[in-house]
Design a protein that fits this description.
The complex is a heterodimer of chains A (about 475) and B (about 500). With about 475 residues, chain A is α/β, with parallel strands linked by helices. Chain A has a domain of about 260 residues: Alpha-Beta Complex (Amidase signature (AS) enzymes). Chain B folds into three domains: about 290 residues, no CATH class; about 130 residues, no CATH class; about 60 residues, Arc Repressor Mutant, subunit A, CATH 1.10.10. The mean pLDDT of chain B is about 90.
């Protein structure tokens, strides 16, 4: 077995028992990147020298200092600020932006001794579902280089699937961790809103954004959750709740656990193979002792509309700071307004412009009540749908995306079709609850399919428990693409 | 036709917190450009605001002092517009749910108390400052001020003249300074105001079309700008024109307002709730605690001065206008000074001496007990009221030297010692004064003649002459008494 294909827990064990050195592991990852990155293009910035240098520093700490990530190379999505290291958000407008500060999540990873291997590609400002909206290059799905890796965390998901890192951090605003995890056959967790600090995460839609782990298995997801969770005084929206040991629930029995199967999620338009695989997975969970219950989330149909108003409204304001005055791209014009316009015209891509315009419109005088306010009311109803059903069940299960990975270029001309690929993930962000996507099988074309397990607010433990029980009874997570 | 003005003021007050409203940067005034900044107040990608709890407390204090309801649930909102001094492209302010609402304060108009409604008091962050003209082709941005906490105090359209507006502004300033939440310094911009002005024929109920006048940054300009704008609007109407709803800028160099932007160009700020900050939940108990910690407020203090010390309204109003001034006065009274006499000295000689050096009462070198000691000298006849003025001024000058660490140059600053040292003790010895009186009468036979033939106001002349010869030390009562006796023969 190659070292680059290890999980965090496997690598930890080998490193702690001195079977391998940190340098061995980092070298293996670097060699893997050298071998496949040309084809996958998961990264915007690769930090091989930095990683090898850190490897030496970290080696001496193993066995002497605490640190659950000592020597573990991780990829970080390029919208998470890393001090003194280029952070572009895959946007030309931040093509040269080097943050003078570290995000809270990466600070916490650093405290545990992680090694940054690179900054991963994404849709510009996390706006997209295929990573085709990157301002720099397209990332390819390691299972089929002609297919999209999903998005917006397509870079981190592809990097994990292609073994270009041991694990990664992504961000999820409407499905941006879960959908690419499903498309790339890996595990992606979107935590409860407020569970993880957003300090240092370049904002897309502040009330929906959440950072989470993208990993090779469920245990690694729990390990990273243990590190990055918890209140942060720098983020008022992070919640001061105690953080449990998420690995403690792994292996616990799921007998008698009630699993909601929302009827609105198995509808026309869903890919036949996806439907069958997810239903098979539910049957398997039943065999493990869980009790499936059909439930209804009646406002599901309004989720995408509400999401695209709220997310774009917040984005239109969040992206106002990119004006060419302080940092990033500046295109000099004949006066102030001209400089603003030229800078933003050159700096932002088409999808970002489209969403800024949508959001600006939705917040404008005379439209605010009809759009933004209405969308917030819908959001409340969706939240109530979840609260109501969670009185009856412990978790929900749905497909992560209606289809397996689609071909590159297939949906770029039709934004609405692209938006629909997040139809099953968006409600989770609107409700603020946690959701995880894990592999639940492969199509006849050997493309991975993901199922989504959704939990109550701050109950990541239940979804990790169910995900782990399922994963341990299957071998899907062990499959690797042929690269 | 007679017209009436309708005015509402929006006052921006900079809060006296040490750090900015959403980050830990200092709020100190006058530092090198961009030295008091961090990723948060510069608006870098991915950073988040965290509310300064002291700013919240200051806003609640202000709301309570202005009789507002404190909202148990309020929130911040984003006000979106592009400008280089606004690093995030939006200002974090409050919109739909401000922290304080529905209050009022009292002002005195022609001796009558008038209530001015307070629509709301809300918190927001200040913007930075654009600097033009230092270099031909470039402008610069200083973000030291970006993120400094402000309160916006919005009045109801209850103000009817520029005079009332000035009274209102003064009252707002007094309250803010009493609470210690704002230094009220208009020159440095810690207190600024915009005015909404309209006029209507006296007796008409409906409001006229209003204009907003911006950039009013001194009490003098409040009066001037409003008078100008009211006159301008009346003239437009009288000439058969219509008022255009617009924003106008006060130009203090030309003493006029001019159009800045019309209704069509008005910004659409696209307000929406700030998702980076959680709603502000203020517990009833905390409001109670803050309420208890409030100082005695100016109106209550003024009323107490009237009832407790029998001061005339005018005196009480003046003394209560500044908390340290009121404290100085009350200290003197506690030490035994007669309230009205102390009030006279404070408003008269003390204020004159302070004003001459543009000093505030906080910088006053004289202590209340010094005044009280001197008043005892007047009471027991050691010095006359007139001589006391000289003593007071000397005492002030000497105390100032002590305060400014030049004590070696002077021996004492006590009034008793000054009187002795300068030989200012009042002459109350009748025979001694009689000699001088005789001398004066002998020297001015013509005036004596005129006095005796009925020109009685000449008594003042004789008193003056006696005082001149005694260097003002003669007891004026005895002088008067002796002169009347001798002249009537």
């Amino acid at each position: 077995m190659e070292l680059f294909s290890l999980t965090i827990s496997e690598a930890r064990d080998l490193l702690d028992r001195k079977k391998i050195s940190v340098k061995d592991l980092v070298r293996s990852i670097c060699e893997r990147i050298d071998a496949v990155e040309d084809r996958v293009k998961a990264f915007i910035t690769v930090k091989e020298d930095h990683a090898l240098k850190t490897a030496e520093e970290v080696q001496g700490k193993i066995g002497k200092e605490p640190g659950s990530l000592l020597g573990i190379p991780l990829a970080i999505k390029d919208n998470i600020c890393t001090k003194d290291i280029l952070t572009t958000c895959s946007s030309k407008i931040l093509f040269n932006f080097i943050p003078p500060y570290e995000s809270t999540v990466t600070s916490r990873l650093m405290e545990q001794g992680y090694i940054l291997i690179g900054k991963a590609n994404m849709d510009e400002f996390a706006m997209g579902s295929s990573t085709e909206n990157s301002g720099f290059h397209v990332t390819r799905n390691p299972w089929d280089l002609e297919s999209a890796p999903g998005g917006s965390s397509g870079g981190p998901a592809a990097a994990v699937a292609a073994d270009e890192c041991i694990a990664a951090l992504g961000s999820d605003t409407g499905g941006s961790i879960r959908q690419p995890a499903a498309f790339c056959g890996v595990t992606g967790l979107k935590p409860t809103y407020g569970r993880i600090s957003r300090y240092g995460l370049v904002a897309f839609a502040s009330s929906l954004d959440q950072i989470g782990p993208i990993t090779k298995d469920v245990r690694d997801s729990a390990i990273l959750m243990n590190i990055i969770s918890g209140h942060d005084p720098l983020d008022s929206t992070s919640v001061p709740l105690p953080v449990p040991d998420f690995t403690a629930v792994l292996g616990q029995d799921i007998k008698g656990l009630k699993i909601g199967v929302p009827k609105e999620y198995f509808i026309e338009g869903i890919d036949r193979e996806v439907e069958v695989l997810v239903k098979d997975a539910i049957k398997r969970l039943e065999l493990l002792g869980a009790i499936p219950v059909e439930v209804s989330l009646p406002h599901t149909g309004y989720a995408i509309a509400a999401y695209y108003i709220i997310a774009t409204s917040e984005a239109s304001s969040n992206l106002a700071r990119y004006d060419g005055m302080k940092y990033g791209l500046r295109t000099e014009g004949k006066d102030l307004i001209d400089t603003y316009m030229k800078t933003r015209a050159n700096g932002f891509g088409a999808e970002v412009k489209r969403r800024i315009m949508l959001g600006t419109y939705a917040l404008s005088a005379g439209y605010y009540e009809a759009y933004y306010k209405k969308a917030q009311q819908v959001r409340t109803l969706i939240k109530q749908d979840f609260e109501k059903v969670f009185k009856e069940v412990d978790v929900f299960i749905t497909p992560t995306s209606p289809t397996p990975a689609f071909k590159l270029g297939e949906k770029t001309e039709d934004p609405l079709q692209m938006y629909l690929s997040d139809i099953f993930t968006i409600s989770v962000n609107l409700a603020g609850v946690p959701g995880i996507s894990i592999p639940c099988g492969f199509t006849t074309n050997n493309m991975p399919v993901g199922m989504q397990i959704i939990g109550k607010h701050f109950d990541e433990e239940s979804i990790l428990k169910v995900a782990f029980a399922y994963e341990q009874s299957t071998e899907w997570h062990k499959r690797r693409p042929n690269l | 036709m007679k017209y009436e003005a309708v005015i509402g003021l929006e006052v921006h007050a900079q809060m006296l917190t040490e750090t900015k409203i959403f980050c830990g940067c200092s709020t100190k005034f006058g530092s090198e450009p961009n030295t008091q900044t961090c990723p948060v107040c510069i608006g870098m990608p991915g950073v988040l605001p965290v509310l300064n709890q002291k700013a919240l407390k200051f806003a609640i204090k202000t709301g309570l002092a202005m009789n507002c309801k404190i909202s148990p649930y309020s929130r911040f909102a984003r006000k979106n517009y592009f400008y280089p001094d606004l690093p995030k492209g939006y200002q974090i302010s409050q919109y739909e749910l401000p922290i304080c609402e529905h209050g009022c304060i009292e002002i005195v108009v022609d001796g009558e108390i008038k209530k001015i409604g307070i629509t709301r008091v809300h918190m927001e962050e200040d913007a930075g400052k654009n600097i033009h003209g230092e270099e031909e082709k470039h402008s610069f941005v200083d973000l030291n001020r970006a993120g400094v906490p402000l309160m916006e105090i919005v009045s109801e359209p209850d103000i009817r003249s520029s005079g009332e507006a000035v009274e209102y502004m003064k009252k707002v300033r007094t309250i803010l300074r009493y609470l210690g939440v704002c230094d009220g310094n208009m020159e440095q911009g810690s207190l600024r105001c915009d005015a909404n002005v309209s006029v209507r024929p006296t007796g008409q109920k409906e409001y006229g079309t209003r204009t907003e006048v911006k950039n009013i940054n001194s009490f003098r300009f409040v009066e001037k700008a409003l008078d100008y704008e009211i006159r301008r609007q009346i003239k437009v109407l009288e000439d058969g024109g219509k008022i255009v709803q617009e924003t106008r800028l006060w130009d203090s160099t030309r003493d006029m307002t001019e159009s800045m932007r019309g209704k069509e160009e008005a910004h659409d700020y696209r307000y929406f709730p700030e998702p980076d900050l959680v709603p502000i939940i203020v517990e009833h108990k905390w409001i109670g605690e803050i309420k208890k910690s409030l100082p005695e407020l100016p109106d209550i203090k003024r009323d107490r001065f009237v009832s407790e010390y029998a001061l005339p309204d005018h005196d009480a109003d003046f003394l209560a206008s500044e908390k340290p001034l009121a404290a100085w006065f009350e200290e003197a009274v506690k030490l035994g000074g007669q309230p009205k006499i102390v009030a006279n000295w404070v408003q008269g000689d003390l204020m004159r001496l302070l004003n001459e050096e543009s000093k505030s009462i906080e910088e006053c070198p004289l202590k209340p007990e010094q005044l009280v000691d001197m008043l005892t000298l007047i009471e027991n006849g050691t010095i006359s009221g007139k001589i006391a003025k000289t003593v007071f001024e000397e005492m002030y000058k000497r105390s100032k030297k002590i305060v400014t660490f030049q004590p070696s140059e002077i021996s004492t600053s006590s009034s008793g010692e000054i009187v002795k040292e300068m030989g200012l003790t009042q002459i109350s010895d009748k025979s001694e004064i009689e000699k001088v009186v005789d001398e004066v009468i002998a020297k001015h036979p013509k005036e004596v003649e005129r006095f005796r033939s009925g020109e009685e106001k000449l008594i003042g002349f004789f008193v003056g002459q006696v005082m001149k010869l005694t260097k003002g030390k003669a007891n004026p009562q005895i002088v008067n008494e002796l002169l009347k006796k001798k002249l009537s023969f």
